[in-house]
Amino acid sequence: MRLIGAIDAFNGKWNVLEENENRYLKELRYIATIESIGSSTRIEGATLTDKKIEELLKNINITEMQTRDEQEIIGYYEVLELLYENYTDIKLSENYIKQLHHLLLKHSTKDERHRGNYKYLSNKVVATYPTGKQSTIFVTTNPILVESEMRELLEWINEQFIAKEIHTLIIIALFIYEFLSIHPFQDGNGRLSRLLTTLCLLQNKYEFIQYISFENHIEQNKKAYYKALMNGQRNRNTKDEQISQWLFFFLESLKSLTEKLEQKYNLFKQKGVYLNERQKKIREYITENQPIKTGDLSIRFPEISLATLKKDLQYLRNEQVLDMLGKGKGSMYVINNKIKK
After folding, report:
1. Is residue 341, in this structure, part of any structural domain at all?
2. So what's the pLDDT on residue 326?
3. Measuring CA to CA, which residue among 83, 85, 112 is closest to residue 97?
C-alpha cells in the first residue's frame, strides 16, 4: 500500500502538470518512445541501439526493412503510437488484442502465418541474455485451452475495472502476469504484454507512463523481471502458486519510474525555456511595455501573421514566460516574474 500510495501521489501531481503541456513533455515522450522500442525489442533478442533506432525512424518512409530487427522495431513503433493517440477507444477484448498483435508483427515476414491468431503449437517463455544464452522461464497454456483462458481473463479484468474492489495497479499487474502465463500467440507475447501494460495504465489515467520507459526499466532489471515471473510460474495453477514477488516487482518498478521521471523533468526545466528569435523579440517587447494586448503586438510586428502571433503567445504562456490578465478581446499579457528569463 505504501508503494501504491507513492505512485498515486506522483500521478496526481503529474496530471496537474500535464494539463499545461509544454515543450518538456514532448521531448520526454520522444526520448521514452525511442527507449521503449529499443528495450522491448532487445529483451526479445534484437540488437539495434537506441541511436540506430532513432535513425531508422527518421527514415521510416523510405527505409526498406530488410532485417528482422528493423521489421520488429517499426511494428513496435506503430503500435505504441497507435496506443498513445487512441487508447481511449481501444477495448480490452480478444478482437482488439488480436488486431494489436497483427499490427505488431505486420512487417515481420517470418510471422506472416500466425500474426493476429492464437498459437497452434505449444510454446514456452525463453529468456535471452546478453551473452546469447537462453533459459526456459516457464511452460505456458496448451494451445487448445488458449481461447477459453483468454476469454475468462478478459472478462475478469473488465469486471474488476468496473467493480473497483481491487486497486487498479494490482488488477493490471495480475492481468499482465496471466497474459504471460497463457502466452496466447506463437510469438510476440513479451512485446505485446509490455504494450498492453502501457495501454492499461493510460486507460486508467496513469498518463505519465508515456513520458518514461517501462520497457527500458525491464531491460535494465531483466534478471529480477524473469525471477519474479518464474517464482510464481513454477507452481502455476496449484495451491502453492505465489504471485507476491511479481506484484512487488511491478509496483516497485512503477515507483522507480515516477522518481526517474521527476528527475528528468526537473533537469529539462533547469536547462531553461527554449525560445526562437521571434519569440524572444515578443518577450522583450512585452517586458518593456507591459501590459500588452494582442493587437498592440500585431501593430509592432506586422511581419508576423496573427495566427503565428497567437501560437507564440500560447507557447509563452505554457512555458510560464507570460501571464494573461483578463479574458477575450480585453485580455493583456505580462511577464511572469516567478521564473528566470
Report:
1. no
2. 84
3. 83
